[in-house]
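Human
Can I borrow your eye for a moment on a structure tokenisation matter? Give me a protein, with the fold worked out from its sequence. Write it directly below this note and I will take it from there.

Assistant
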Amino acid sequence: MELLTGFGLATAAGLNAYIPLLALALLGRFTDLITLPHGWSWLENGWVITIVVVLLVIEIVADKIPALDSVNDAVQTFVRPGAGGIVFGSGTAAQTAAVTDPGEFARSGQWVPIAIGVVTALIVHLTKTTVRPAANVATAGVAAPVLSTIEDITSVALVFIAILIPALVLVVLIALVWAAVVLLRRRRRRKAVKPG
């Protein structure tokens, strides 16, 4: 179940880096639903929460504006995988207190959940950045706010499913893979049909 929670959170981070970070921070700080391991307790710091909220607002606005959403996605190529690593590592309760001793951290294998989260979020992010420009061009930018809103809602839903009902994460991940494959096939067909 911990792996499913980690995959759900990392997938959510691939869509929007700040939603799962903020959810973990708020749920860890204000509820008993999540107890973050000691090495991840910095997420519950008030300053960290404030910074994540500000970054989330910027992300939500920038991602709704055609052309700016592509610039935002380019910048987020570095942010979303990192957030995926953080939420996978903390979501699977990896004990990362050894981060202060990088040698121990590397020997202990505690970096493995973080690496899995980075890769998971990166794959989701790269899929998103492949689909979004095509949708913007095909709809003259009208799709940007709609797709962005769907991505944000999906990210929020994934976070809560990953935390409350981790077994459903597998179903959601299969549905997301299916949707991405369908969209990419449509894009290829449209390119093949276009003359010249």
